[in-house]
Every structure is written in C-alpha cells, then in structure tokens.
Amino acid sequence: MALSFFGRKRPGGERQTGSAGDSSEAVRPPPTVLSELDFSGADRGLSTASGGVEVQEVGTGIGAVFEEAAILYANGSVAEAEQVLTATLDDPKATTGEGLWMMLLDLYRLTGQDQRFEARVLDYAMRFERSPPPWVDLSPQGGRAGGERMPTVGLSGSLAGQGETQLSQIAAVARRGGAVRIDVGKLRNVPDAGCAALLRLLEELLAERIKLSLSSVEPFIEDLARRADVGRAEGRDTWLLLLELLQFTGDQERFENLAIDYAITFEESPPSWKGIAVAVPKRAEAGTDAALGDDVPRLCGELCGASNESLKRLASLAAERSELKVDCAQLQRVDFVCAGLLFNMLATVKAQGKLVTLFNVNAMVAALLRVMSVDQVAHVTLRH
Asked: Contact, 317 vs 290, CB < 8 A?
C-alpha cells in the first residue's frame, strides 16, 4: 500500500518549514490547534516504519521525523518512536518545532514515564516560553492506586511451536508481580488447541485473583469471529476463547448474541457473563461511549484493525447529527488501518456538509491523524 504525505503551504505558495527565521516573526498559534502546530524536524526517512506500508514522501513540509515517529507509535513500536524523537530533539543542529516536543511529552505520559517527562518539561518551557503541560499518567494503569504498574508481555504468531513457552513466561511474570498486561495484537491464525491453551491461562490467572488486562484485543477478536461458523460444531475452544475476550472488552451485547449462537451450534449451555471488564476501564481497547456529559461520544483505548466496531458506531452517530463532537481524552493509540478508515468516514461526513470535532487528542495520535490528513476533514485539537 503506497500512501503520499502532502505538506502544507503558506498563502502565496511558500511551504512551511518551521525554520528559526519563520518562527521569529510569526505569531505563535494556540498550542492546542493541530493544523497549526509546527512538526518540522531534521530530514529523516521512514526507514523503520513497519507493517508493510510503503511511504512515498511528496514534498512534505511537516517533517519526516514526525511522520516516522507517528507511524512507529501507530504500529506499537513505542521504544523506536521515542528513539526517533529524542535523537532529533537532542541534536543541536536540528530545527525542531513545538509539535515534536509535544509528541515526546505525550509519549511519556502515555507510557507512564514520569521521571523522563519531568526531565524534559524544563527544556520545553525555556524553549517556547510557556508553561509546559502538567504531568498526567495516561497509561492504561494510570488510574491504579499507588502508582502501580502492570508489566506488559506480548504474544505473537499462532501459539504453535514456541506457544507453550510464551504462555509459561506470561504465567511466571503474572504470578511474580501479581499483575500482567497481555498484548494479543500479533496473534495470527491461532488453532483450536492454541485457543484452549490461552483460555486455560486466562482462567487460571483470574482464579488466582491476579490483576489481568489485555491490549490490542479487537483485531484478535475479529480473527476468531471469522472462524466461528454458526451450526458447524467445530473449534469449540475457539468459540470459548472468543466469548472470554468479549468479557474483557465489556461488550456484553455482542457476548450475549454469540452465546446464543454457541448454544445453537454445540447444543450446550454457553458460559455466563462474568463482567471481567470491571477490573479494567470499560471499552479500554476501543470503543465509543455516549454517556459523557451532554451526550458526547468518546473514543477510548486502542483502535486497531479493519473491522472496528467503534468507528462503525461513530459513523452511525454522525449520520444522525448535523454536528458531532468526539472526546478522545481516553484514546491511547490508533493504528494505520483505523486511521485510514477514520479519514474515509470523516471525508464522507464532511461531504454531507457536517462538522466533526475530535478534541482532547494526545499528540502521538494527533500526529498520525495529520499524516493521514484527517485534520483536513475534521477539526482536531490536542489535550492540554
């Protein structure tokens, strides 16, 4: 897939470069307006972008560094994104705009790195002569008492071959620390036996009252759902794991519908709804919730995969309203595929003469939205 990233031009055709000469005379815009932030940086290519995306730079004026960091973060490569940003910001020869600094500060807030955040805010304040954003722990564990952190362990592949070893390592980490966050976003084509092993691990950890959270769940759910054929009594453990994962996302409606299909297919009682998601934020992986304030929907957690229910719900809301404001304060990450889907949906809405505003967006997600030109079809503002 080839994508072109287009730079912006100032009136009269002059491309914005974010150089020192430009910033000394121009009036600095409000820091929360995405389309006016200066994301320029040193000239670097997108050599480390993963996921099979071929990037073609077409006269970009918004900074290859910001594009690279945004795509790395969207792909889940947090450490690599941090390295790209810090390498540029620490380069005395590089001319960097405020956007890159905001990205790094928000990256630290999203990953709960308060010490690294504090080490950078003074430099930010001195450089831009404004108060830096306050420390807020935006990590999935940010609301836990006592600053508790969950170690994160990733699963990958099909759980064949080294699958037993991966699950054993997760069990050891969980039992040693009393908590674990399992990233299942890289699991692919897991057979029924692998589903049974993962389900057994989840049930054992929950029975031992170990604090358990899952990330990047939705793509894995959709992969399993494609194999759950109603009326074909095969892959029982695949069905059971799918039902268990839906409990982690808090999607009770979909769980109940699937439970009926399970009963029809296997002619036995399905598992009951246990409300596992009470231990983690509801819709922590990806969702919209219209219960905030004056009927304001919100995007939460991580938006991943081509079959994203939260974006479908958002499109339905946009179809019903002349104006839609979406709170993104709890949105942590958007992957490349979902960003493309979001652009297509918002472009359709804009063509209908409707206004969509995405507000309280963190700088790492906002950077990807700018790369994907989402800010051209919606109003996007950053969180403080």
From this structure: yes
Between β-strands 298-303 and 179-187, what pairing exists: parallel, antiparallel or unpaired? unpaired
The rounded Cα 223 to chain-centroid distance in angstroms is 18
Helices (H) and strands (E) in the chain, counts: 13, 10
89 touches 66 (CB < 8 A) = no
Segment 251-279 shows an average pLDDT of 83
Query: Would you say residue 140 lies in a domain?
Result: no
Domain co-membership, 81 together with 176: no
Q: Do 274 and 302 reside in the same domain of the chain?
A: no
Tens digit of pLDDT for each residue in 309-336?
778 888 888 888 888 888 888 889 999 8
Q: Which has the higher per-residue pLDDT, 31 or 264?
A: 264
Alpha-carbon separation of residue 209 from 202, 203, 356 (angstroms): 11, 10, 42
Domain final position from 228, 256, 279: 279
Contact 243, 212 (CB under 8 A): no
- Which tens digits make up the pLDDT trace of 205-221? 988 888 888 888 888 99
CA 359 vs CA 32, 137, 327, 348: distances in Å: 9, 18, 5, 19
